From TrEMBL:
Primary localization class, coarse: membrane
Membrane-spanning segments: 21-40, 179-202, 214-236, 248-274, 280-301, 308-331, 337-358, 370-388, 408-427
ComEC/Rec2-related protein domain segment(s): 157-388
Entry membrane topology: Multi-pass membrane protein
Keywords: Cell membrane, Membrane, Transmembrane, Transmembrane helix
Record bears the keyword Transmembrane: yes
Any matching Pfam family: Competence
Organism: Helicobacter mustelae (strain ATCC 43772 / CCUG 25715 / CIP 103759 / LMG 18044 / NCTC 12198 / R85-136P) (Campylobacter mustelae)
Name of the protein: Putative integral membrane protein
InterPro entries according to UniProt: ComEC_N, Competence_DNA_uptake
One of the record's GO cellular component terms: plasma membrane
Amino acid sequence: MRPRIQSSPSPIPVLSGKKEWAFFIFFSFLIFSYNLFGIYQDYQGYSKSEPQALQATIKLQYRKQKGGKSYFVLKLEDRNAHIFYTTSRQDLKDLIYRDVRVFGKMAECSFWEFLKSCYFHTYQLSLLPKESYKKPLRDFIDKQHGDANSALLYKALFFGDRVNPAWRNIANVTGISHLIAISGFHLGLLSSILFFLLFLPYRFLQKRFFPYRNLYYDLGCLVLLGMFGYLVLLEFQPAFFRAFLMAALAYLFYLGGVALFSFSMLFVVVLLSLAFFPSFAWNVGFVLSVFGVFYIFLFVRHVPKKRILLYFFGFNLCMFLLMGIVVHFYFPYFSPYQFLAISISMIFPLYFPLVIALHLLGLGDALDPFYLWVLGAKIPFIEFYTPWPLFLGYVLASFGAIFSRKIFFVLLLFGIGFYGFLLLRFCKILGIGV
């Protein structure tokens, strides 16, 4: 008989007792301090007054205009994942994801700014012969698209590549940046696809050779190995790394009968992520992914599961409302078209595996006409940043919602009021009658 998987009737807490929590926090702090000191040593090396050579990969390249003259802005990432921006007035070809040698020196930059990015004065820029190991994969996508913009979108979806300003503006204005930027949402979809593909072959082999094995334990391990390989391909992209670490811990906790999907577990994941990668604290994608998971846990905690379709719609609606104030603290763009993000988020679990299949079949350009139409659309928008007192109060109330269902629904009312305010502001600025 195939063994059944059962949850522990009394799940063990992630960490029990003040001593365990104190030891874990202290241990995480030691790792954090060690890694932060390593980054500080790198900072001191770049802070030297004399020019030096920097070997880096160009992560982003775009043209800007200033004073009637055009120049290129280049985003560089060195071997230790430090980010620099530089400019060039040369007529450069497309150098995105090429390795370069930059001779120059870092502009005046504090250590805390260095954790995010600094400007690098470039005296000489030379191309290195080495190409990215992902080039064959990118070429596979490029060959299926006559328009470079469509290829850029898919390379962002599949490989975590940066989108160009045109796609970035569309994503920000329509509120779908979380779908284009790879995160835990994509990990969940890819894990489900991989589990489905492995299920039947494993069952076939299990019945004949190892009926004593537990299907869910083994496939869970195989899926995690597959996702780790994908994490390496993404070069440990922060939001996906957080999601993978959470999935790996969830698997281990399940094997040990430890409570899953708790706020304690989220805290452990965040602390471990920051301990090993201190610069994640300045990564907006990582921060927003943590908030996203936090509000998912709040929803699951306070909203009872009833009809599956109603629950699915309510989930996407609540995530949209709960994340609004947080997102606008970092990104100011608002348009009424953002309300479409609720429906788009619901469709995305079907869209993502569909476009993967289309590319595997060599039909990747099937939706290109639609993308060209979207890029050509003129979407009106306004800009509004969440004031920091409102943001701080909202975050504190969010922590309070862990213990109070009433506060959770107050947060939803805040979300409705916030979007109502943005809609009225939009109509006023654009002169639209309400």
